[in-house]
Fold:
Amino acid sequence: MGCGGGSKNARQDIEGDATTSDEEEEVVVPDEATSVTNNGDSFLGSDFAMKNSTTAAARRRERYCLVACKQMVGLFATVWVRRELVPHVGHVRFSCVGRGIMGRLGNKGCISVSVSLHQTSLCFVCSHLASGEKEGDELRRNSDVVEILKNTQFRRLCKRSGRKIPERILDHDRVIWLGDLNYRIALGYSEAKKLVEANDWTTLFEKDQLKTERENGVFRGWNEGKIFFAPTYKYSWNSDNYAGEDVTSKKKRRTPAWCDRILWHGDGIVQLSYIRGESKFSDHRPVCSVFIVEVAVLDNKLMKAASGPNMKVGAEELLYTQTTK
Structure:
């Protein structure tokens, strides 16, 4: 496979016709990146992990290895794995789809990362969909989802040992889609704010655009965990106040909304947690999810040993703090 750096085993198929068994790996997915770095791609063994990691990432440096990273304008995606799993990672590829100005530029759109872990294909889609809270703006977001699924194309690889190497998002065994999906709450500011202050997430969620659009067929076949946290958008800078609380002009108000979401597609995925963090570096709050993911491995002791309980990681390692609102 054409990728730079890393061990040979990490870049090639695991060959053989042995029967497979399902092992479980834990996947932790933070929604917002905590740093933005240089353009271009990075693969296994990149110096990026050492030079541009955040303080939290530096503490985990001994346990995790950067598999891949990619930037497209303001979008930035990274995939990390436990060091013990690096020899079993392969087929690292990227695909970017711009959905910004003229439906092409990269200020909106997605970065998709395709990897294989043992005998299972995984895809991570990091997206920033169309903004706006006017009536009808949700249709532009729906269109972004359709075009991303249609136009994401991973580089074709030679088939080996009868294995099918996925080229589209939905060809993968397990898919996680995360990012600023930008779906809003179909309520006025004052009404939504009252529900937020009452922590009435159930009533508020009934007006969630993503919920409504999924019921109408967008993201058909995808799953999302139940939300038990406050809307993640829009906050005043370095503040716990929503932006509308600090302005007098109604034009500058933004109705609180769950813009930042994590969805998944495929069997063998169990969500353990779905939470938000409280870092204030953005007008969004980050969200994080922990999953147990089934991975097919060759039926031998060596690979089973690489997939044991010591692979577990908690969500608290990726978020600064968590508070209940």
About this structure: The domain at 9-183+258-304 is CATH 3.60.10.10 (Deoxyribonuclease I; Chain A). The first helix runs from residue 48 to 51.
